[in-house]
Design brief:
Blueprint (H helix, E strand, L loop, with lengths): L3 H18 L3 H18 L10 H29 L7 E3 L6 E3 L6 H8 L6 H17 L2 H11 L4 H8 L3 H17 L3 H4 L6
Antiparallel strand pairs: 1-2
Helix pairs in contact: 1-2, 1-3, 2-3, 6-7, 6-8, 7-8
């Protein structure tokens, strides 16, 4: 049985949530019902020795109210983001007419704009082929250092793994940079000379 004070507290929080969301009265009743259902759902797990029933219920109501507000704002964001259809026509820009918006969107463009990808996929494939060609020409001791550094190992950790000194690792890194520079990888590896 839920205490009348707990119901009153839930009703008060529901009114505040509805006011915050600018929702109509009938939605306030829905919020109140979801708050009370959250209390009922968690009642079997309540530890009677930790807090009073009202304190326990207030905590559940607060968390559930935050979840309701978060979901409402997420729904509003989704509607604002999806204001256009991928099937609507857009101008090509060269005066040739219109095409569907979906033909102007690519996963490469999305990956680059979101920072998940630095270059188009076709360029990355060519880069992988060129990189393999350079690695095939390197002596085994440089290949092992290159592979460890590519796996985000620090130079010190690479030295420990290969059982060589840090100074030797740094000498091999200098040789690796020279090999990549000679192969034309300045722009990819950030090896441009400082101006």
């Amino acid at each position: 049985m839920i205490d009348a004070r707990i119901i009153a507290d839930a009703r008060h929080v529901a009114a505040r949530v509805s006011h915050r969301l600018n929702s109509p009265v009938y939605q306030q009743e829905d919020v109140e019902q979801s708050l009370l259902l959250a209390i009922v759902a968690r009642a079997p797990k309540r530890d009677l020795g930790r807090a009073s029933a009202r304190t326990w219920a207030a905590l559940i109501v607060r968390h559930e109210a935050a979840a309701v507000i978060g979901m409402a704002f997420a729904q509003k964001r989704d509607r604002r983001v999806c204001t256009r259809s991928l099937n609507e026509p857009v101008e090509t820009g060269d005066g040739a007419g219109t095409v569907e918006r979906i033909t102007t969107v690519s996963s490469d463009m999305y990956g680059i704009q979101t920072g998940r990808q630095t270059r188009p996929a076709s360029e990355l494939q060519i880069l992988a082929i060129d990189l393999k060609r350079v690695l095939d020409r390197l002596p085994p001791e440089l290949v092992s250092v290159a592979r460890l550094l590519a796996e985000d190992e620090t130079p010190a950790d690479a030295g420990t793994i290969l059982n060589i000194s840090r100074a030797t690792i740094y000498r091999r890194m200098v040789r690796l940079r020279a090999a990549f520079r000679d192969a034309g990888f300045e722009s990819y590896a950030g090896l441009q000379e400082a101006a």
